[in-house]
Amino acid sequence: MSTLAQGKAGLERASTAQKVADMLRERVLDGELAPGLRLSEEAIGGALGVSRNTLREAFRLLTRDRLLVHEHSRGVFVRRPTGDDVRDLYAARRVIECGSLRLWNDVTEAQREAVRAPVRQAVARAEKNDWTRAGQANIQFHRGIVGLAGSTRLSDESDRLFAELMLAFRVAQEINDFYQTYVPWNRRIVELLNNGEIQQAVDQLAEYFDAAEEDLVGRLEVEQS
Amino acid sequence: MSTLAQGKAGLERASTAQKVADMLRERVLDGELAPGLRLSEEAIGGALGVSRNTLREAFRLLTRDRLLVHEHSRGVFVRRPTGDDVRDLYAARRVIECGSLRLWNDVTEAQREAVRAPVRQAVARAEKNDWTRAGQANIQFHRGIVGLAGSTRLSDESDRLFAELMLAFRVAQEINDFYQTYVPWNRRIVELLNNGEIQQAVDQLAEYFDAAEEDLVGRLEVEQS
DNA sequence: ATCGTAGGATTGTTGAACGATTTGACGATA
DNA sequence: TATCGTCAAATCGTTCAACAATCCTACGAT
Asked: What is each CA distance from A152 to A61, A143, A148, A155, A216, in whole angstroms?
């Protein structure tokens, strides 16, 4: 029964460490815990009402997700992506997303719609100048692309890359206006896909990555000083 | 100074949890800790002389690497990959490695050599019927391919995929004879690359994945019962 | 201004403790 | 005989307190 299988997910009690990690992840991604900030075990543990041991387990989880960095005997810090990190990030995205996009003709219609729908949303939100939500839709667009590959492992890793990129955006102070340039670009990619011009769509996506990377790295190195 | 930079890596004291995780990782990958086995906190912790808290940190690390699975209030187990896992794994590898291979003409000669050399090694070892080392060289071949992308994040994730695949091999009981069929295949791929026939090489690699996946899934579902 | 050095703060790790959950065996019931 | 509670033992989840190891800072000495 599918209903029972669904309920199972809800039944799985999340461990305290997992819940703490989820809470901290949100705080990091929404910017409340800024990149570079040191997370004191005592302070955070006290504020959240969990023991140091449990908190350290949560830290390990987020360190593995590359949201925190762990320095021996110095503590954990909110990751502060560098220009090199961003280059590495985009090198990975180029391979993953361009490779996934090439599968366009081999996937289900539902998978294809998971690429198209977020672009429509992004366009609509951009017209209302709601750049925050437009940005979220943009991420959904890229999640949809990776989803074409049909691998949860690949999708999970991509989610980590996206999260890390969000941190880089924060360092570069370009939360809102970044997507402005690229929404039409995404729209064009979907058009090419709908016309069956897969190779052109892949090329466009690659160019998008080139431009986005250069832009972000540039702003980052300025901020670095 | 490069010598100083090298020394730095050695200076970084690894935490106890990290060392324990590394030791357990070896034991899992060399088969001493078989897939499906439950890892008692008390037994393992006692044998290794570390406290339960530290051991649990190590477990978290390996769980994140998908070598262990954590079931709430039941403990951690050595992962036992299913047919679906293998399909997911290969879906990811197809995208990552085929996408990386396409970059053949855009990378340094050293990167290309990191693909060729392991194949020569694998061939030499296969001639001596040293299938264990031939298998290791085969992995180096695929690591080399991913390395073409130049992303440590992508390479790290691929290493996790490889490790998980080793577990699947163990469940399928096909440690030694598996690579026998595929060594010549890899040789052919390198030949195509050297001749500049990138697209053909990518196609061959994709076919290799198809065959390997089908083979492995088949043996796995037999073993499942 | 640079270089030790001592002291305080924080992390690394341990061991014990106790509630919560799972497991498996033992009967009771049909 | 098969199924269903019930209960005890084992194990996990989490906290707490303690101490060693390490890092950071401020203070002098040169």
From this structure: 18, 11, 11, 5, 28
